[in-house]
């Protein structure tokens, strides 16, 4: 394991806090168990359904088995948990004397709970703690961090961090764009929106990233961004490709003399390997 990995968790906590503060969508969703730990909730069997379907199913079977069969040691289990550590398997007791404590119908609830707590709480406590500390570094208060997660539903946080899954609306895009040097009635602006409307969904995403460095729109669409978008007319040669000032949401290009030339120039910058490397700050 990378010795710096805990620092990465703290750094990640800071990044997520900053993203939330500045309403930047980063295209991720939180694991429900991780979210619950940050909120200070207890982890139950139902919480791990998506995180580990196999363990969830196994635990459900243990709890639902006939009590008489369990008491006849049909499970063959004791209060231990096998984990992988540095490439080798290691047996960990779930309680003092766990190796000799047989799981029966009276203690199987305790066994399942102990297994879940070890697997999803104890085993990752350091990572969660460092992430929470990084988050608190930005929020300036560890208690505020816990209150923040506690007042949200996981789905709320997903919407805030992941953003909209809807297709990019060209009409919305156009309604939230202003022009400098061009007028909305200019041929070049008319051509531009016609070309964008005919782009594939992926090309639109690449163009948006080239223009703003944003990959994911907020739930509100373009109106939810920190600023309106701008198209600037430049005095450069029409041989030049469009450029951008991503911090200011500016797309810049000269007055191309034909729709075909504009389409060709835009096609170049909407290739993923190009669109992510042009653009200027």
Automatic annotation (TrEMBL):
HECT domain segment(s): 1-281
EC number(s) recorded for this UniProt protein: 2.3.2.26
Any coiled-coil regions, as ranges: none
Catalysed reaction, written as an equation: S-ubiquitinyl-[E2 ubiquitin-conjugating enzyme]-L-cysteine + [acceptor protein]-L-lysine = [E2 ubiquitin-conjugating enzyme]-L-cysteine + N(6)-ubiquitinyl-[acceptor protein]-L-lysine
Transmembrane segments: none
Domain of life: Eukaryota
Active-site annotation: 247 (glycyl thioester intermediate)
GO cellular component: cytoplasm
Enzyme class (EC, first level): transferase
MF term (GO), any: ubiquitin protein ligase activity
Keyword Metal-binding: no
GO biological process: protein polyubiquitination; ubiquitin-dependent protein catabolic process
Keyword line: Transferase, Ubl conjugation pathway
Pathway given in the UniProt record: Protein modification; protein ubiquitination
Database matches in PANTHER family: E3 UBIQUITIN-PROTEIN LIGASE UPL5, HECT DOMAIN UBIQUITIN-PROTEIN LIGASE
Name the record gives this protein: HECT-type E3 ubiquitin transferase
Provenance organism: Dorcoceras hygrometricum
């Amino acid at each position: 394991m990378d010795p710096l990995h805990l620092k990465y968790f703290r750094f990640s906590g800071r990044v997520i806090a900053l993203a939330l503060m500045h309403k930047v969508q980063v295209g991720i969703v939180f694991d429900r168990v991780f979210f619950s730990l940050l909120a200070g909730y207890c982890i139950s069997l139902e919480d791990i359904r998506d995180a580990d379907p196999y363990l969830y199913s196994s635990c459900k079977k243990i709890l639902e088995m006939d009590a008489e069969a369990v008491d006849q040691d049909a499970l063959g289990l004791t209060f231990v948990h096998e984990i992988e550590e540095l490439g080798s398997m290691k047996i960990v007791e779930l309680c003092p004397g766990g190796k000799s404590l047989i799981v029966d119908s009276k203690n199987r609830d305790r066994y399942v709970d102990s297994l879940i707590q070890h697997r999803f709480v104890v085993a990752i406590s350091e990572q969660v703690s460092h992430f929470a500390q990084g988050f608190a570094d930005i929020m300036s208060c560890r208690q505020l961090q816990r209150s923040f997660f506690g007042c949200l539903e996981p789905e709320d946080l997903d919407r805030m961090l992941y953003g909209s899954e809807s297709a990019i609306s060209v009409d919305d895009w156009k309604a939230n764009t202003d022009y400098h040097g061009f007028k909305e009635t200019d041929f070049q602006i008319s051509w531009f929106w016609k070309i964008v409307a005919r782009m594939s969904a992926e090309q639109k995403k690449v163009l948006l990233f080239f223009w703003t460095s944003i990959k994911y729109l907020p739930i509100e669409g373009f109106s939810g961004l920190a600023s309106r978008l701008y198209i600037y007319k430049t005095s450069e040669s029409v041989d030049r490709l469009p450029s951008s000032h991503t911090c200011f949401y500016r797309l810049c290009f000269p007055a191309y003399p034909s729709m075909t030339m504009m389409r060709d120039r835009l096609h170049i910058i909407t290739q993923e390997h190009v669109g992510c490397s042009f653009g200027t700050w």
